[in-house]
Design a protein that fits this description.
alpha/beta, Rossmann fold, 2 domains, five-stranded parallel sheet, 65% helix
Length: 281
């Protein structure tokens, strides 16, 4: 047995006591823990109560044979991943093929060669443990990702709320302070270059103000923050694929947002360009 491998738990299922003794001694002498069942029904009870790390199954057994038992094991959620090695005196190709078809991972022909058996048992137990360890790591990483996504959603929601308040403040300052001051400045004695600069400033401020007002109009229509982003990009003339790329979403998701926007704007069944309609708001 690989010295780095911990003792493994193996369930032998065979109706022949001599074979159970032979396999059991070989495995225990090499550090494995062994349990045994003389029929498939008893094996199922034992495995369900405490799953092993590997099954060694005989094929010919009274009642439920090894093939049927393996099929049952693969239908059990707690046992489906446990490797099954068939141990049989049959060397026919059809038997071997069926063993793999029902879920077996290996097939050993009698008479048993100790080195071959131990090598295959050790390899399959190690692979089983590696799969379980990988599964645990994947579950941990999935949980970490889900927790991170939840935190990001909370943060994004807070940022969106903060953004709305900031937009209101900016809008009020532009309309009530900055634009009135620029208009008063426009009425003072200015040379042509200065007047052109002030007029450009006022035009740009009004454009920013209109954009913020449009966002608030969209909010009044119960559009979600993402739908507002999509609506503004549609207003800019962006197509579905461009919007999907910019927002890191799928084309299907953007198409769904477009449908929701049309529904909330009450133009779902009207033959209107969404770009044109949004631009008219």
């Amino acid at each position: 047995m690989n010295s780095a491998m911990k003792s493994s738990d193996i369930l032998i299922v065979d109706d022949n006591p001599d074979m159970i003794h032979l396999l059991g001694k070989l495995l225990t002498d090499n550090g494995h823990q062994v349990r045994a069942a003389k029929d498939s029904y008893r094996a199922l009870d034992i495995a369900r109560a405490n799953p092993p790390e590997l099954f060694l199954l005989d094929i010919e057994m009274p009642g439920m044979d090894g093939f049927e038992l393996c099929s049952e094991l693969k239908n059990e959620e707690s046992l489906v991943e446990v490797p099954v090695i068939f141990v049989s005196g049959h060397e026919q190709q059809a038997e071997k093929i069926r063993a793999f078809e029902v879920g077996g991972v290996d097939y050993i022909c009698k008479p048993i060669h100790a080195g071959e058996l131990l090598s295959r048992v050790n390899n399959h137990v190690e692979l089983y443990r590696l799969r379980k360890e990988l599964q645990v790591q994947v579950e941990e990483k999935t949980r970490e990702v889900e927790e991170t996504l939840t935190a990001l959603r909370v943060l994004m929601t807070q940022q969106q709320q903060d953004s709305k308040e900031a937009e209101k403040t900016i809008l009020n300052n532009i309309n009530n302070l900055v634009i009135p001051y620029a208009e008063r400045l426009q009425k003072t004695p200015l040379n042509d270059n200065q007047r052109a600069i002030v007029e450009m400033l006022i035009a740009n401020l009004k454009q920013v103000s209109d954009s913020l007002i449009n966002n608030h109009d969209l909010l009044e229509m119960k559009l979600t923050p993402v739908e507002i982003q999509v609506a503004n990009l549609i207003r800019e003339g962006k197509q579905t694929k461009e919007i999907a790329s910019l927002l890191n979403l799928s084309d299907l998701t953007i198409s769904t947002h477009r449908k929701n926007i049309r529904r909330k704007l009450n133009i779902k069944d009207r033959k209107l360009s969404l770009n044109a309609y949004l631009s008219s708001l």
